[in-house]
# Entry
Amino acid sequence: MKNDQRNNKYNTFNGIKVLRYVDYWKPILDGNIPPPLCLSIDPAGICNFKCSHCNACEAINNKVMTIETMNDVILALTAWKTQAVCLGGGGESTLNPNITTLMRMLNDNNIKIGMVTNGSMLHKIFDVTHTCSWIGISMDAATDRTFSTIKCVTGMFDTVVKNVSQLCKLNTTEVGYKYLIHPNNYKEIYDAAKLAKNIGCDLIHIRPGGNPWFKDINYEFTHDMITESLEQIAKAREDFQDDNFKVFGITSKFDKNWASKKSFSKCYAMYTTGLISPDGTIGLCFDRRGDPKVTLGSIKDYSIWGGEKHRGICKSIDVTKCPRCTGTHINEIFENVIIEDRMSCYFY
# Structure
């Protein structure tokens, strides 16, 4: 089909897009770390859900980013010439009473915005959704029963579905229905795709869950679970995908058993990107939010980026002990293109 990512490589989830940064990142090999062009911001260290599979529990600190810290963030981002940020990940961004202010500040400085949210408070940002390139709603279910079990909340599924439907009707940004697979919800993948299309989403993004850094959650994906999940994704793609709705089943960062795949020997991603916590602390790894071992320092002193401490943290990482790696594609590009030019990328 026209928008099937297996036939159309030009899609938002194709990690090979970071090839555009090869020349920008090359100095890292000589110890010179350039400013981050893309990173995450966590405006709120609080959440109104208690998702059973949350990989950011250690980052929940009951803090929200103040206007003062937002100003510090904008100063750093403009100095770094950062091009894009993702809001969310370490809490629910929309619980920050000044979230729309931050979104406007970023937009006024020509910084592209993506947002991940649980969707419960979407109505708070309807006036500024036009500032976002995309918004992804963490749904992980197709029914109230499964939603309540996974999110550890009751009576919220219909509210979130209604909010997402209203967001889609605004037609101001790309809307994605995000579906993290684990043993409690793999039987609802097809129904979730159907619901996502019916309420007007542009896509559904489906991928396996992974272990957090702070404890061992064994998802125990059996052969039957994986087989059925893949069959549902394929069936959903066949039945629902068209020019206006895409079904993405992303497993490239996992092995055949859906365990974390380490297709690289070192971490280079932490030289290229990071995250800013609600209190203005700079972290270097999306997947290890709240881990002091990968904490760089305060955004007030943003010149710390690229310094000796930064290099030391990156060099200390043993990737065999890491959880699922969001930066897998970055690390693969470093080892296969920047260090060894296996693509002969300067020829076209």
Notes: DSSP finds ten helices and ten strands in the chain. The chain has one domain: 15-338. The first strand starts at residue 38 and ends at 41.
